[in-house]
Amino acid sequence: xxxxxxxxxxxxxxxxxxxxxxxxxxxxxxxxxxxxxxxxxxxxxxxxxxxxxxxxxxxxxxxxxxxxxxxxxxxx
Length: 76
Hints:
The protein has helices at about 15-20, 35, 55-60; strands at about 5, 25, 45-50, 65-70. It is α/β, with parallel strands linked by helices. The chain has a four-stranded parallel beta sheet with strand order 2-1-3-4, covered by helices on one side. The longest helix has 10 residues, at about 15-20. The protein is globular, with a radius of gyration of 12 Å. The mean pLDDT is about 90.
């Protein structure tokens, strides 16, 4: 069974294609907590961009979550 990865924002199509070879990929319509809460209980990975902020309440509802990755370049 492939892991489930949730993209909080769109990323480059080549990256999505690569991810789909290794995981089931879901794309959230936005990164508001009320949008993400129903999606996170079944995910293994979460990919955010620089503009995305994930609320603590969202992470608390993701028992399978193993990886949170930030996609992009630069320093915060």
